[in-house]
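INFO  loader      accepted 1 record
INFO  loader      residues=149
INFO  predictor   begin
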Amino acid sequence: MTPEQKANILEILDSARDLTVATVREDGYPQATTVSFVHDGLAIYFGCALESQKARNIERSDKISLTVNLPYDSWDEIRGLSLGGRAHIVTDPAELQRVFAAMITRFPQINDYATEDTRQQVGIVCVEPEVISLLDYRQGFGHTEEIRV
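INFO  predictor   done
INFO  writer      dumping tokens
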């Protein structure tokens, strides 16, 4: 990964607030869900109910895909990411505290919903990318760059 590619990826992650995450269901079908997220470098974090289908899917198979798309007015402005990686539920208390603080900073409305009970029912998922497709149609229609992490 070149420094320019990494800078472009981080700019997209900084600018977007939501992503679509796809996990593998027990029956083999993908399940796609939109979630809000934060990131620390290339590591991406989102919350989900520990009893949710997403969490069960991740426990069964840590393979995950996601897309991040920035808003655009014209097709020659399309920028985004398509990413494949491995996911796990975060258990380290220091990492959980750091990520939760980042989530509150980015999404202060969490305080309106996050009671002590709901915090016990929600897990934080960390996605470590393995391959990233960087979409940047400003460089030409359909321009993508595949990056191994």
